[in-house]
């Protein structure tokens, strides 16, 4: 598989009155065509800023200050405004967490999809409209010929998200960025939307960057995942390996705290003490050190680099990277995992 | 003062067992409770004829998706608005018929923790003042005793004592939720209604807050009505679980029964929709059910069984006849024509 998107040492900062916030710092990852990479992390870890940086949607006081974003070999950070607009919504599309605020409330969804199509394709209004109806139908919206005239507020949350996916896919993008696509939805609706995204990916082979805080969703939807903490990627690898042999203490802690089903009811849950550090005054050394139970002297002095991890040997061919001086033993989490996306 | 609190609360732990023999009324009992909201678009049947019982020191979990009536139920119990029909009995007394003194006394015993730790704290009040206010309203102790109680509360929920002088915006989401829990705990309640108390929190923080709630239950025997859309969390916290769909309880059972052998098709769908890295350990070899369609409008609920529009097993009978809650097993009731037998 060739690399569709390759992000290298991306740095995005926000210049606030109280100081510089390094929201994304030295973030590197890549996505191949047909592959789903999940960007996992808690609020404030820099997931959404990374996505916005890829589409060059960072505006003042934010600024992309370094790195490169290669999309099909082309550095998006070097493109002019007109050129990036040719890519945005066309070859890279994005769906958002809250579809109600992503749609224009005073235009019908049909009008908005037609606008998206005609911005990038030379087709007549009528043809674009027919395409919109076909797209809505493919997304599983019942009676699309009527629904296409509805205003966003008239649709349920699940339908609205389907309409948004229809709009995102209207120009057949090579890369879809899904920023918490199901967080605002109920669990049963969430299952429908994830199923739909997987089907669409299987059909058109697009790459997908899935941004989420839900590790369960990651296990079921993604092929690989990158875990972010305080603006940095701390661990990256295939789902099978990450969920069975996590090596960064933060990943291991996260997995343990969502693993609520495996515990006897009413027993204490494993917790990560403390809370995420402020990005305003970054600490020296590893950002996780304060909450880490394996902390030692070096962790307070240097930031551990994201390095390729050689062991364990039991996952041949899978590239695994971890940013820790003292990674946990890979057999620390013995629970089985089955990835449906594989 | 702390000794008194310990005393008062530890008596509750044994109380569950006493009730069975002494025929004491349950702590909370809902009888055919309904709530209808009249809007411009018509009548919204938010809650239809719900029966629930909560014993002293027990945790009852309430699961369902948005629009199923969970929060309406919580607000009715807190007497934020009156029911359209039915009764709420707290300690055997109908809350609709209580006079002012009884109401005040009940409010001290019945507290709530809210979902959003950002909007449920007064931004212009220091944390100390927020925690002291219930003690002032209910005339508990003098100034010195109240200050001592505030310090004790802060310590109990794992916050620094100097937090008392700080304001809500200075705290993170998880810390604010601790403050909300401390406020609910201030008057030593018998029941705390937790409405999606951990939904807004990050996973690593969620575990901390759940552990705190578990600690408080073990120490003081407080009962929880634990409302959440997350079945895995509810199962971890609760003794019994009631599953709601479109204003009705569709299944109710001890939580392990719901978890191991859900009978209602909706409960089964809810179980299989939980995204999890350990799906096989939950579902075994059962097939994953993905529901079709959306929740019907509560303005115009479907005829017969309310779940029939999305149920994979629906038949003609489901459209014509509404299933009643029937006993399937000891303490396990389910409202489905085909779940039993």
Determine the strand fraction of chain B and express it as a percent band.
15-25%
SS elements, strand count of chain A:
12
Which stretches of chain A are low in confidence, meaning pLDDT under 50 for 5 or more residues running? Answer: 331-342
Quaternary state of this entry equals heterodimer
Shape, principal axes of CA atoms of chain B: globular
Instruction: Give unreliable regions of chain B as ranges.
Output: 1-17
Order of helices and strands of chain A: EEEHEEHEHHHHHEHEHEEHHEE
Biggest sheet architecture of chain B:
8 strands, mixed
The helix count of chain A comes to 11
Order of helices and strands of chain B: HEEEHEEHEHHHEHEHEEHHHHEE
User: In DSSP terms, counting alpha (H) and pi (I) runs of 4 or more, how many helices of chain B?
Assistant: 12
**Strand numbers in spatial order across the main sheet of chain B:** 6-7-8-3-9-10-12-11
**Any idea what the radius of gyration of chain B is?**
21 Å
Explain what the structure shows.
The complex is a heterodimer of chains A (342) and B (341). Chain A is of the alpha/beta class and 342 residues long. Chain A has a domain at 228-322. Chain A has helices spanning 47-54, 81-87, 99-102, 109-120, 125-138, 144-147, 157-168, 187-204, 215-221, 239-244, 249-258; strands at 3-16, 19-32, 36-40, 62-71, 74-75, 92-95, 175-179, 207-212, 224-229, 232-238, 307-308, 321-322. Chain A has an 8-stranded mixed sheet, with helices on both faces. A 4-stranded antiparallel sheet of chain A has the order 2-1-4-5. Chain A is globular, with a radius of gyration of 21 Å. The model of chain A is unreliable at 331-342 (pLDDT under 50). By secondary structure, chain B is α/β, with parallel strands linked by helices. Chain B is built from 12 helices and 12 strands. In chain B, the strands form 2 sheets. Chain B has an 8-stranded mixed sheet, with helices on both faces. A 4-stranded antiparallel sheet of chain B has the order 2-1-4-5, with helices on one face. In chain B, a hairpin with a 2-residue loop joins strand 9 (240-245) and strand 10. In chain B, helix 4 (127-137) crosses helix 5. The model of chain B is unreliable at 1-17 (pLDDT under 50). Classes of the chains: A alpha/beta (342), B alpha/beta (341). Chains A and B meet through helix 8, helix 9 and helix 11 of A and helix 6, helix 7, helix 8, helix 10 and helix 11 of B.
